Amino acid sequence: MALWATSCSSSEKLFLASSAATRRRMGSRRRDLVHVGMTDQAETETISIAYKEGDRERPKWADETPFSRLVEALISFKPFYSLLKLGARQVLIRFLPFFSFFFFFFRVCVFLMYMCIQNNGIQYSNSTAEKNNIPWREMTKEILESDVYKELNTIQNTSLQYPDYYLSPFHAYDEGNLSWLAAAEAEVATMSMTRRAIPYAPSNEEATQEMRGNWVQAIKQHHMKHSGNVTIQNIVDIGCSVGVSTRFLADEFPSAKVTGLDLSPYFLSVAQYKEKKRPPRKNPIRWIHAAGENTGLPSKSFDLVSFSYVFHECPERAIIALVNEAFRLLIPGGTLAITDQAPKSKILQELSPALFTLMKSTEPFLNEYYLTDLEERLREAGFVNMKTLLTDPRHMTMTATVPHQHV
Fold first, then answer.
1. pLDDT-based confidence at 117, cuts 50/70/90?
2. Start and end of every Methyltransferase type domain (predicted)?
3. Quick one: how far is CA 181 from the chain centroid?
């Protein structure tokens, strides 16, 4: 791992809490750590982990190349797409019995999935989950056989008009995010994605703490430096899914009022159901069924707007609309935080063509995301102080500020 942190100023270095537990956990990776004495409004010693960047601005497979266009054509061919979708779904559940496929398209599909599994390339898979003690099917069954369905009536905005892009199939679900199965599997898929990103962690819990801990520390550091002493009292997590990121924010900012907002009433039902199983909070999380591009929330009412793993599922026009809405919602000095796939990640830049094909079969707007100049879109919306850091080997966190003179 390249230790680029040694060439950065101390105020720019990503840090984790330097507790004794963290030191013990990371001891086996001591060669990859840089110990930094933070002097930027914090005099405590911290641990900085640097992740390796590739030598390009984005993966080569995301460019408009002949191969990329061929992949688009293959995916648009419905019989082939159906096989890819089936294959991706089976990879989510278990290793495929490849010998059972006899026809040409089946063989092609098998090859792609075989390459994917061999190279650890799929974003999240149940084979990964089960190998890492993530009880995918058990957790899914627990949700589907629970009383979660009762939450729908208290969550759903029946008058909501869904954006056209949101009705596309995502993640091998024909209904995309608008199904109970997708909602029931969302948390275990997130756990598996985290394990895929942090494969060296001793446990699932420690993988989550590294990934989410780096993310939230990047937010805190940016806000501390650029907000002008604005306290984070009101947070909205847009595209909150089943509330994994929302609950993490609520835990990290216990005095803040936190809102989780999503387009899927099924995801929100699971989020609300799971939150009810936890001990009551001083400030209960509020769940809202709305579009992130037009939330209906008051202007200048939030100190932090967060998007966690949302933008790679959106066309560029939606990304622009989401960024503009975030700017409207934030107070002067407020912080925007985006965490998602990192175009500069060395691991993602080195994905094989087979892996790229399988990824694209379940992520219809992946190319648009990688080709979007996100910092420029933020600048056009009016944000300043843009900062991008790799916060794990596959993902980045981008932070920005609404100018203090914003009227």
1. very low
2. 236-338
3. 19
